[in-house]
Amino acid sequence: MSKFPFDIVLFDLDGTLVDSARDLCPAVNHALGTIGRDGVSETATRNMIGGGTDMMLTRALEATGGLVDEATYKELSGALLEFYWDNIANNTVPYPGCLGALDQLAARGCKLAVVTNKSEKPARELLDALEMTDRFAAIYGGDTLGRERAKPKPDILQAAIADCGGGRAAMVGDSTYDVRAGKAANLPVVTCRYGYHDVPVHELGGDVMIDHFDELVGVLEDL
Ligand SMILES: O=C(O)COP(=O)(O)O
Ligand SMILES: [Mg+2]
Q1: Residue where one domain finishes, among candidates 58, 86, 114
Q2: Is ligand 1 within 6 A of the CB of residue 19?
Q3: Is residue 1 pLDDT above 80, yes or no?
Q4: Is 38 in the active site?
Q5: What Enzyme Commission number does this protein have (predicted)?
Q6: Quick one: which atom of ligand 1 is closest to the CA of 175?
């Protein structure tokens, strides 16, 4: 077997490794309910994920009657996070084929890392609950280096690569935050059609798109 072309594969979390809208949507709707707003559908929520929890809440507010004053926003953000932490892995599951693909990459000697715009604490809690933490050599959240350095900045990608010992890396994600961060770090980017998109899927960019995790190893081999 010829040497695998990547030493490190970086993964976005929500909409890439795990289908977490199933638990994020009820958390958003819980927060909206505290100010008497109707909820948003899970389908609508999917397009609001990718820029971190605050971005998701802002988009949900815009979709249900408009933004609120800062004090109310803070309360809503707190209510959302508290509900989410209590229900973080009720329905969230790794996407079909995810664990098998991670196994295959590890068998090829790749180091794996998570680079998410979710805050690090809930990201780690979710990965722990799904018994996935040990698979990753590095886990960076959107707040790990400070929110201003979250994706689409390349910083958490570069930090994860350094933690993995450096080498040739690729980025796998589902939103323009991932594509822009990957490009800013000069990495090839694989996008996931099944994930959560902040723009129409054909506008995502990236180098290659997969429909299912079973395609990932082959696609990386050909990049
Ligand atoms: O929490 C979010 O909105 C996004 O998280 P992600 O970067 O793992 O997609
Ligand atoms: Mg994502």
Answers
A1: 86
A2: no
A3: no
A4: no
A5: 3.1.3.18
A6: 9
Q: Could you tell me if 180 and 118 lie in one domain? A: yes
Query: Residue 131 in contact with residue 138, Cβ under 8 Å?
Result: no
62 φ, ψ to 5°?
-60, -35
Q: 139-164: per-residue pLDDT in tens? A: 999 999 999 999 999 999 999 999 99
Centroid of ligand 1 to alpha carbon of 165 (angstroms): 25
Coil, helix or strand at residue 212: coil
Q: Which two tokens stand for residue 31?
A: 């927060």
Structural domain ending residue among the three candidates 31, 64, 86: 86
Is 3 inside any structural domain?
A: no
pLDDT tens-digit readout, 103-120: 999 999 999 999 999 999
Q: Are residues 80 and 173 in the same domain?
A: no
Report the alpha-carbon distance of residue 81 to residue 156 in Å, rounded: 22
What does pLDDT average to over the chain?
A: 97
Please work out whether the CB of residue 118 comes within 6 Å of at least one atom of ligand 1: yes
- For the CA of 84, the nearest ligand: 1
Q: What's the CATH code of the domain at 154?
A: 3.40.50.1000
Residues 65 and 98 in one domain: no
Check pocket membership of 52 for ligand 1, CB cut-off 6 A.
yes
What is the CB-side half-sphere exposure of residue 89 using CA atoms within 13 A? 14
Taking a C-beta distance cutoff of 8 angstroms, is the pair 168, 7 a contact? yes
Which domain covers residue 58, as residue numbers?
Answer: 21-86
Whole-prediction pTM:
0.96
